[in-house]
Amino acid sequence: ETGVTQTPRHLVMGMTNKKSLKCEQHLGHNAMYWYKQSAKKPLELMFVYNFKEQTENNSVPSRFSPECPNSSHLFLHLHTLQPEDSALYLCASSQDATSGNEQFFGPGTRLTVL
Amino acid sequence: GEDVEQSLFLSVREGDSSVINCTYTDSSSTYLYWYKQEPGAGLQLLTYIFSNMDMKQDQRLTVLLNKKDKHLSLRIADTQTGDSAIYFCAESTLTGGGNKLTFGTGTQLKVEL
Fold first, then answer.
1. Could you read off the pLDDT of B33-47 as tens digits, one per residue?
2. Which residues from chain B sit within 8 angstroms of residue A48, using beta carbons?
3. Minimal CA–CA distance to B83: which of B44, B38, B33?
């Protein structure tokens, strides 16, 4: 595996379900990011982790819970979501979060909340 | 705060040049990026420009930066059908939490035969 991978690629869940999105990067980077991409809206940065420490939470509702056990893995735990949370969730990584380094993106998880 | 704006659609004929425009508001941007997103895929970095430059050329791609007007453009020469995608402009600024990318809404480029 190379680059940034995300699983699952597609997820359909009910509002009462609990699910998790997984991201893994094989680039030796130290920063990882979660973004939300909704139709006709700019990408919204959700969370930033730098060297496993969360450095940014962009006012994300608590029904989204990130976890970064090591620099290569990032999870997004989902609980009691709303239909408006349906979107493409993109993970990215970069060398670190403190300089203007390029962010490499995964293919995303297409989430549908019924 | 930061705000990045792009037009939503652009249609060009194959072989013509495409010019995708972007405006941003944060004058402290360090880098400005162009990303490409094909259907069902994540974002792929195409090119970037440092904020103290005004032009960068990379094969068929030319980036122009007018820092005074906070205007960024991406020119694709000899546009091909494979260039059909959504193009995102993004600015990079340093915040307390580190380097932050702010993206535009994306411009859907359609290349017609």
1. 999 999 888 899 999
2. 97-98, 100
3. B38
